[in-house]
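Priority: low. Protein: Adenylate kinase active site lid domain-containing protein. Input follows.
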Amino acid sequence: ASKVLRAVVLGPPGSGKGTVCERIARSFGLQHLSSGQFLRESLGGGGGRGAGGRWALSSASACPGTQVVVSGHAAFLPLTTASFHCGACTGFPRTLGQAEALDRICELDLVISLNIPFETLKDRLSARWVHPASGRVYNMDFNPPQVQGVDDLTGEPLVQREDDKPEAVAARLRKYKDAAKPVMELYKSRGILHSFSGTETNKIWPYVYTLLSSKIPPVLVDEEN
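Result:
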C-alpha cells in the first residue's frame, strides 16, 4: 500500500483554507475533508459522503464539544486512507483539546498554517455571503455570484452569516488567535508546522505547492509552478 500522508490546513476565518485545500486535493490526488460540510450534511441527514467519495469533518466553531468532531473524524479517516494516497483536512483542529483528541486517532505528518493580516481578513469576511444549503461561499469583492444575491447553481438566495457581519468579525479573529496559539506551538514543537504569510491565496499557493511536491509527487502539474 502507498504511504499515507495526513495533513491539515489551518488559519483564521477567511484566510483561504478551503481554496488552498481544494487546490492541494486537485494537484496531488488527495482526499479533501472539509471542516464544516460534515456537520451540515450530518445534521441535515446528508449521510456524510457523497457519490464522489468526499468526506468531511465537523467544524470546531460550530460544535459545542470535541466529541462530535472527533467521532466523525474517527469514522471517516480509515475509509479516506484506504481509498486515497493521502488525505488533507481543512480547519481542524482549532483548539488544543481537539488537537490532543486527534492525536488519539492518527499522527499528522504535515500542518500548513496560513498567516493573513487581520485587516485583510476583516475586509474578506465582511464581504462574504454563503448559500446555506451547500455551504458555497462567495465574496462580493473578488468572487461574486453571477447574479447578485443568489447562488450560481440553484438560484436560491444567499445570506450573510451573523458572525461575518462587520461588528462580529473582530471578536471572531481575537477568539481564533487565542485558541490557535497553543495548537501552533504544539505542532511547531513536533517540527511539522509550515507557515505561509501573505494577503492573496494566489501568491501563497506556489509555496504550498512546492512544499507538498517535496513530500509526494503531484498528479497535476500546476501551471503557475
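Confidence is low (pLDDT under 50) at residues 45-86. Residues 125 and 164 are 5 Å apart (CA to CA).
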